[in-house]
Design brief:
This protein is mainly beta. The chain has one domain: Single-stranded right-handed beta-helix, Pectin lyase-like (Pectate Lyase C-like, 3 Solenoid). The chain contains two helices and 17 strands. The chain starts with a helix and ends in a 12-residue tail after the last strand. This is Probable polygalacturonase At3g15720.
């Protein structure tokens, strides 16, 4: 959070937060809040980010990693974001969890790009874009096991001008217990 706060008030250039390659970081639920004062922020994910391997709560209870009210930013790289969703899937299958969070949430953001990363094993939806505009999603891949419940790749709601390009989505099973499509 210190890196985000510093980047968000940076007065010149294009500040970059780097998640370095060859390393894995355990990240508790977190919200990156805007608006940033002067500059566009760049988050470069070269390494891996993993969620806690247990049920957890977050500020908003809808996403593990949230970007909220941020304008003109980029999240890219060839790293992986692993939501470690199996504990959530078990909870959902046993009807002990009413709601299951997304791995990555974008809320009320404008002019953003998310590119090149792999999102794995989300507790619920892999990426949620809500109440945002001018969103560019490029070269992303989403993967979770076939028996993972409600792990949609991308969920877009109340947003405008959203571009999805070159996405590979292999996220969960859309069949219910009766073998029928779950809409």
């Amino acid at each position: 959070m210190k890196a985000w706060t510093t980047a968000c008030i940076f007065s010149t250039g294009w500040p970059t937060i780097l998640i370095p390659s060859g390393k894995t970081f355990l990240l508790s639920p977190l919200t990156f809040e805007g608006p940033c004062l002067y500059a566009s922020v760049h988050v470069r994910v070269e390494g891996n980010i993993v969620a806690p391997d247990k049920l957890w709560t977050s500020q908003n209870n809808t996403s593990w990693i949230t970007f909220r009210d941020v304008t003109a930013f980029t999240v890219d790289g060839n790293g992986e974001i692993d939501g470690r969703g199996s504990v959530w899937w078990d909870c959902k299958k046993k009807n002990k969890c009413d709601s299951v969070p997304s791995a990555l949430g974008i809320l009320r953001c404008v002019d953003l790009t998310i590119a090149g990363m792999k999102l794995l094993n989300s507790p619920g939806k892999h990426l949620t874009v809500d109440s945002s505009k001018w969103v560019h999603l490029k070269g992303l891949s989403f993967a979770s096991p076939a028996d993972s419940p409600d792990t949609d790749g991308i969920y877009i709601v109340e947003s405008h001008y959203v571009e999805v390009k070159d996405a590979a989505i292999g996220a969960g099973n859309s069949l219910n217990q009766d073998g029928k499509l779950d809409w």
